[in-house]
Design brief:
The chain is of the alpha/beta class. The chain is built from 19 helices and 19 strands. α13 packs parallel to α14. The mean pLDDT is 97.
């Protein structure tokens, strides 16, 4: 979906600013941009559904203006088209009013929205609510969104699916589920995380021929994770390399009943190129982990004290996979934190960290990889508060721990600094919704750290590789894909 899309992502306020600069400083008339937007949408419709009749739902403001242009273009091309108006013409102003007049001149039939309307055929164009939505969708807009959703017809959203918040990717009330969304000038950050991807459908971007210099005047607060840009962090190996050159990862975890988690994290650390990988786990799991992967050094530890010599030998620690929440788990975690090594903290490592009342550790050499539930516990919030603004949550975690943080979920977010944009992972697929995927990710991140990559870049590269490996594994289907299915594609990826 995203290979041809730009990297920078913007808030609604920033896109309005880009718009303003283009109109005021570059002298491009607003109606000209509106006509380009309408044309871009119309082109998508006729290329996908040639000859289909159109029903265009128009609200107020510039989003509606784009819709009126689409309808006028359809009428000029002799396509059957009808506008359903939610805001009366006398309330329109500026470019939106000009666009309305253009549609009237083109002879488009315009009807006011009413409750019991039928929607039987053709394609629906959603030009109801633009990027200005904050909070709940009011009537009659909510009613119109429900009508469009219930119709089962193909939907093209203008700029953003109505009902979706363009800054957070959340929807408070009903929201359009578009088949295609055509977005303009700057890509809206909410399209890529939370509920955004589910409702956006296929995303098409058009910069409306806004000059490049306009973009230099607005600094994006986030960007798409660009795997190609990160790949050079994996250099070609020297001919005289030896295993000591590529680090020693120690994976700590695997309470009784959770032995698979350490097995996966450790094996994937080897597959991502670490020189040596050790495991510290419950004695029950030693033979199983060894028989699965004999290249690992697997140690039974029954207390924090027994972990100490293993910690001394390691260059990087991955703690948390299958760790559990028992006194044994707590002892191990305490020893890991005291060792002060670069550490990836995942899963129950995060849950135990959240339960600690005072933070006495130096967390600056950590990488944290919470899912929304773990993030909520770390921040003392509810999951729905975290998900209501994922961008704010990941920044807050960074401020609290001052280390690279990944907030997992659709459109995983990475924050490595308050100076840099938040990175959004736009790869990956629903096949990743199965046990063990997080353990694989923590193993990849540990392996990249061990190979000397800077923590923020190691996390970003790990997330990109993990998502791309999952997308390659999904060629056989998403349903039933398992975490270990990523091992083959991953190994090919790290050897470009």
């Amino acid at each position: 979906m995203s290979h041809h899309l730009p990297v920078p992502l913007y808030s609604a306020r920033q896109v309005r600013e880009l718009d303003r600069i283009a109109i005021q400083d570059c002298g491009i008339p607003g109606i000209k941009l509106m006509k380009r937007a309408g044309y871009a949408v119309f082109q998508q419709i006729i290329s996908r559904w040639p000859g289909a009749p159109l029903t265009v739902f128009c609200g107020a403001g510039n989003n509606a203006g784009d819709g009126y242009i689409v309808a006028a273009l359809a009428a000029e091309s002799c396509l059957p088209v009808e506008i359903i108006q939610l805001t009366a013409a006398h309330k329109l102003q500026g470019d939106a009013l000009s666009a309305y007049n253009y549609a009237v001149q083109a002879g488009v039939s315009i009807k006011p929205f009413s409750d019991g309307m039928g929607l039987e055929t053709g394609v629906v164009v959603d030009a109801l609510l633009g990027t200005g939505l904050n909070g709940e969708v009011r009537e009659p807009f909510a009613q119109a969104i429900r009508l469009i959703k219930d119709s089962g017809l193909p939907i093209v959203a203008v700029d953003i699916p109505s009902g979706l918040c363009s800054d957070t990717g959340t929807a408070v009330g009903p929201v359009i589920g578009a088949d295609v969304t055509v977005t303009f000038i700057g890509m809206k950050q909410g399209l890529f995380t939370g509920e955004g991807p589910q409702h956006t459908g296929e995303l098409v971007f058009n910069n409306l021929r806004v000059p490049e210099l306009v973009y230099h005047q607005v600094t994006p607060e986030c960007e798409r994770l660009d795997l190609e840009e990160l790949m050079p962090l994996l250099p070609k190996r020297r001919r005289d390399a030896h295993k000591g050159d590529f680090g020693h990862v120690l994976v700590v975890g695997g309470e009784r009943g959770f032995g698979g988690a350490v097995a996966m994290a450790a094996e994937v650390a080897l597959r991502t190129g670490t020189g040596l990988v050790s495991v510290a786990t419950r004695s029950e799991h030693v033979s199983a982990v060894l028989s699965r992967c004999p290249e690992l050094m697997v140690n039974a530890v029954s207390s924090g004290q027994e972990l100490q010599p293993l910690l001394e030998r390691a260059s990087v620690v991955v703690v948390g996979p299958g760790l559990g929440k028992t006194p044994w788990s707590e002892q191990l975690l305490r020893q890991v934190f005291m060792a002060g090594k670069p550490t990836v903290v995942d899963a129950d490592g995060l849950n135990l960290l959240a339960a600690q009342t005072s933070q006495t550790h130096d967390s600056r050499h950590w990488i944290l990889t919470p899912h929304p539930g773990e993030a909520a516990r770390l921040l003392g919030k509810t999951v729905s508060e975290v998900q209501a603004d994922r961008f704010a949550a990941v920044r807050e975690l960074w401020r609290k721990y001052q280390c690279p943080v990944l907030l997992k979920g659709v459109g995983s977010l990475i924050c490595c600094s308050d100076k840099l944009p938040v990175a959004v992972c736009t790869g990956g697929n629903p096949g990743m919704a199965s046990g063990g995927m997080g353990d694989v990710l923590s193993g990849i991140a540990g392996a990249l750290l061990a190979q000397g990559i800077d923590p923020g870049q190691a996390l970003s590269l790990a997330v990109g590789l993990h998502a791309e490996a999952a997308d390659r594994a999904a060629v056989d289907g998403e349903r039933g894909m398992t975490a270990t299915d990523l091992l083959g594609p991953l190994r090919r990826l790290v050897n470009p």
